[in-house]
């Protein structure tokens, strides 16, 4: 194993949660694949090495199986064992060919036509916010807009009845904290674990209801493929839906909040988007690259393999640090500059290859519409704080609060 040219850091130190990019740049320049004794894992910060992690058969997306293999069964409560069994079925933790089998259930359900149907809902939510908060008012953009908007869209798209939306959103947020490594107390961890079980039971009942009486929603569209009950069991399908439930809202809410924060800190780029709302699709891609909602993903070394000159051993962990790879100067010109007109932009914000994010079309539509509609509704939008409160999470990049003045 190699050693870095500077002291290893804990990635959840306050200053690195607030701004990880200078440290990631130092790691990348010294060793794009670096062994971190602090995290007992390889930190992959180089673009080419990160992309290789998505296609190298010796590197596995399954991080639940190895963790359970190292955990004595008597240390797991029945609730914890059930929660882990649900998460083990998420596509994000499954390798080919099983991954392709599971993903096939959603073929066509995430198509552009289905996604575009959610556009009026986004406009309505922005209008409600503009009406509720008058000009000059200070609001928390995270809790009053960025978090509820994508969660509401995701719930409606999945077919959750309006009267259940608040409960569904609460479960989804708690499951996201559990899955994305947010710092939690034992009591919070237990609540999040319970939320996953409650969400699973709720969605199983909803799946059975939609099988009996289909509607215009994601669950009905997926069931129409005829694969649930054939190549994919009902429990596997419901487990995947629990992942869709939190991922659909979490990623997009963080993209909206952090994207707004970066736009307000770069007035020249903000002016570009205000002047040309049609720039939104390209702008969203750059916001994903520059400071996206996913900092890294975890991989497991299945077999010994060499990666960018580093010798990885079976059983070791990798952190594929997309936040570092997306600012690799060998791949991106002026990587530390926000450029809303940047094209091409082959960022890794949604992963790559077979594990490319299934919900990327919806996230792009909701984030782009939310940003342009928000800027149109609040022409004097400005930060109401000089700092930002960041969620201490290893995997995702999210704000706890963002006070803005309308």
Quick overview of this protein structure:
By secondary structure, the protein is an alpha+beta fold. It is built from 18 helices and twelve strands.
Number of beta-strand segments: 12
Poorly predicted segments: 1-5
| Main beta-sheet strand count, sense and barrel state | 5 strands, mixed
- Secondary-structure-derived class: alpha+beta
Helicity range? 40-55%
> Between the first and last Cα atoms, what is the distance in angstroms?
52 Å
Give Rg in angstroms: 21 Å
Average pLDDT reading: 90
Anisotropy-based shape: globular
Strand order of the largest sheet: 1-2-8-5-3
Tally of individual helices: 18
What fraction strand?
Answer: 5-15%
List the helices and strands in order: HHEEHEHHHHHEHHHHHHHHEEEEHHEEEE
């Amino acid at each position: 194993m190699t050693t870095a040219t500077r002291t290893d850091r804990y990635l959840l130190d306050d200053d690195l949660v607030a701004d990880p990019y200078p440290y990631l740049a130092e790691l990348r320049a010294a060793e794009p694949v670096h062994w971190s004794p602090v995290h007992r894992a390889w930190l992959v910060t180089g673009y080419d090495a990160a992309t290789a992690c998505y296609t190298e058969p010796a590197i596995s997306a399954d991080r639940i199986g190895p963790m359970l293999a190292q955990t004595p069964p008597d240390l797991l409560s029945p609730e914890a064992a059930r929660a882990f069994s649900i998460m083990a079925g998420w596509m994000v933790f499954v390798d080919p060919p099983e991954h392709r089998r599971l993903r096939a259930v959603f073929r066509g359900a995430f198509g552009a036509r289905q996604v575009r149907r959610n556009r009026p809902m986004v406009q309505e939510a922005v209008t409600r916010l503009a009406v509720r908060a008058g000009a000059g008012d200070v609001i928390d953009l995270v809790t009053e807009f960025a978090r509820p908007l994508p969660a509401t869209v995701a719930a409606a798209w999945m077919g959750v009845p309006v009267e259940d939306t608040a409960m569904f959103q609460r479960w989804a947020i708690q499951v996201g904290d559990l899955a994305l490594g947010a710092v939690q107390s034992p009591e919070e961890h237990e609540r999040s674990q319970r939320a996953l079980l409650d969400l699973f039971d709720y969605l199983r009942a909803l799946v059975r209801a939609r099988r009996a009486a289909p509607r215009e929603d994601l669950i009905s569209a997926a069931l129409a493929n005829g694969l649930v009950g054939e190549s994919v069991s009902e429990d596997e399908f419901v487990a995947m839906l629990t992942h869709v439930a939190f991922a659909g809202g979490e990623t997009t809410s963080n993209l909206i909040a952090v994207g707004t924060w970066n736009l307000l800190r770069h007035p020249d780029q903000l002016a570009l988007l205000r002047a040309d709302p049609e720039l939104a699709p390209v702008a969203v891609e750059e916001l994903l690259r520059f400071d996206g909602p996913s900092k890294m993903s975890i991989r497991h070394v299945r077999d010994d393999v060499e990666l960018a000159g580093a010798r990885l051993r079976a059983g070791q962990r990798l952190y594929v640090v997309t936040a570092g790879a997306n600012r690799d100067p060998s791949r991106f010109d002026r990587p530390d500059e926000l450029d809303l007109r940047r094209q091409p932009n082959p960022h890794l914000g949604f992963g790559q290859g077979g594990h490319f994010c299934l919900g990327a079309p919806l996230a792009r539509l909701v984030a782009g519409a939310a940003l342009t509609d928000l800027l149109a509704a609040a022409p004097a939008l400005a930060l109401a704080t000089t700092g930002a409160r960041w969620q201490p999470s290893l995997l995702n990049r999210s704000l706890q609060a963002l006070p803005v003045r309308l």
